[in-house]
Amino acid sequence: MAAPASFSIHSPLRSSLRIPRGRNCSPPGASSISLLPRGLRSSSLGRIGFSCSSSDQILTRVAASSAPVMDPTKGEVALKVPTVVDVDLGDRSYPIYIGSGLLDAPDLLQRHVAGKRVLVVTNTTIAPLYLDRVVEALTRGNSHVSVESVILPDGEKYKDMGTLMKIFDKAIESRMDRRCTFVALGGGVIGDMCGFAAATYVRGVNFIQIPTTLMAQVDSSVGGKTGINHPLAKNMIGAFYQPQCVLIDTDTLNTLPDRELASGIAEVIKYGLIRDAKFFEWQERNMEALLARDSSALAYAIKRSCENKAEVVSLDEKESGLRATLNLGHTFGHAIESGFGYGQWLHGEAVAAGTVMAIDMSYRLGWIDRSIVERVHNILQQAKLPTAPPEMMTVELFKSAMAVDKKVADGLLRLILLKGPLGSCVFTGDYDRKALDETLLDFCKS
Ligand SMILES: NC(=O)c1ccc[n+]([C@@H]2O[C@H](COP(=O)([O-])OP(=O)(O)OC[C@H]3O[C@@H](n4cnc5c(N)ncnc54)[C@H](O)[C@@H]3O)[C@@H](O)[C@H]2O)c1
Ligand SMILES: [Zn+2]
Asked: Where is the 3-dehydroquinate synthase C-terminal domain (predicted)?
């Protein structure tokens, strides 16, 4: 297949948040903002703590978070009701609910459950922390639903065919039929595996994502890429399969290890760099709050990331071009992950170093200012993320891994590079090879 022509992206963010009809409590200037999910019944409002008067404050805060000139970390009130970001994919559209305490909001989950049988897929780390609450949320006031769970071993190395089979084993043993719902409770590994199981079990069943890592909340749970690894290649077997909803309880991040949190921040930074300069500037001002797990800073970062991803996915679901830009730093990053050995560095750590390399190359090509290079270094250092590949990486290791990258077309490696002002990027194979060689030589000892 011929490589598509390269193209550049610099699109202003289109907010997909809405004000629900009849409940417009927004202050002046808070247009296109909603805190309520589509169709949220009034009976459920009390349970998730919504009230019009307190929402005025909250709305102001959310409005602030949607208007990048204002700083949402300055206020006192944390988000306690869900923000909704829509992923607009025609009849496969779905909401992403974001907020604190959402695991205790049964209506949100139950409205998206099809049939009477639910299979929760999780792992040995997350089950003791959150499984009971999810089962309770699925069943409270809803006795005709029965919930089974399958608890998988934890780790990227189990994102394989053998572990996938355990999901099918449990589903078949439990007599799950076509009208059942699979619920992914965990990070990206669980989300990708459960999604792929849902895509293929009896040729497709309902699927709900409850992501519990920042990486999964800002990236992997949104957009419908599901799959497992092959021993020879990561994420090589999979399907595009969209969930019925994504439910993000920001409180789950309280138990996440620091290193995992920083790994997710690498993807947040990515959105700013490729398409949302104002968001990047906000991150520069609020990195400390994010690392300190300030709940409103995290909620804002997740919302803005999901908005960016939702917009890209709705324009290019199957990655014919635009969606590839979400892979800034990933070609170098994947080379680090495979060269260094999976699991040595977390995905976000490898992406951070890869981003620095992509930006170095963009600068060598004369496509960006020096100031952008410096700002990227600074923000990654602030986030305690690596700014160079591990010392064992060689030019040869990079080149051999990059040769099998999914973005190679007709032998040509296409890369996501920054070009122009902050927030603009290109996905292209049309660059001077010398710049790539120089970047590799500069970052590798041999
Ligand atoms: N589908 C996509 O579009 C997409 C995008 C990005 C990444 N991914 C995939 O996602 C995976 C990486 O995801 P990840 O970074 O979430 O890793 P992960 O799923 O391995 O989770 C990281 C670790 O955190 C633990 N954990 C999860 N939530 C926790 C919580 N709330 N408290 C305490 N511990 C918790 C997990 O058990 C695990 O040990 C990779 O397989 C990658 O390929 C997919
Ligand atoms: Zn990534």
From this structure: 264-408
